[in-house]
Amino acid sequence: PGNGLLTINIGSVESSTALLIVQDMFGKTVFESSAKVAAMHLNLSDYAAGIYMISLEDNGSLTTERLVIQK
User: What is the rounded CA–CA span in Å between residue 15 and residue 59?
Assistant: First the structure.
C-alpha cells in the first residue's frame, strides 16, 4: 500500500514504443505515458483510494503489477 507517490524501475526499455498504463479496477485507463527512461516517477496521490493495475507494454510483452493507494 502507498499514498500514490511512487517510482517505477523499468530497467532497459527495448523499444521507443514502450507504454506505461495505469487502470482502475473497472478497467478504465486513468494514466498513460510512453516509457523511455529506466525509472519513472509518478504522482498518483490525487487519485481515489483503491486498487489500480500498472502495466508496461514493451516490444510485444506485457507486465502488470497491482498498486493499492491508501488515504
Answer: 6
The C-alpha cell of 38 is what? Answer: 529506466
d(CA 65, CA 59): 18
What would you measure as the largest C-alpha separation in the chain, in angstroms?
35
CA distance to 20, 23, 26, per residue, from 8 (Å): 10, 15, 22
Q: Which residue reads 510483452 in cell numbers?
A: 61
Residue 13, pLDDT above cutoff 80: no
Q: Residue 55 pairs with which residues in a beta bridge?
A: 21, 64
Single pTM value for the model: 0.80
d(CA 71, CA 63): 26
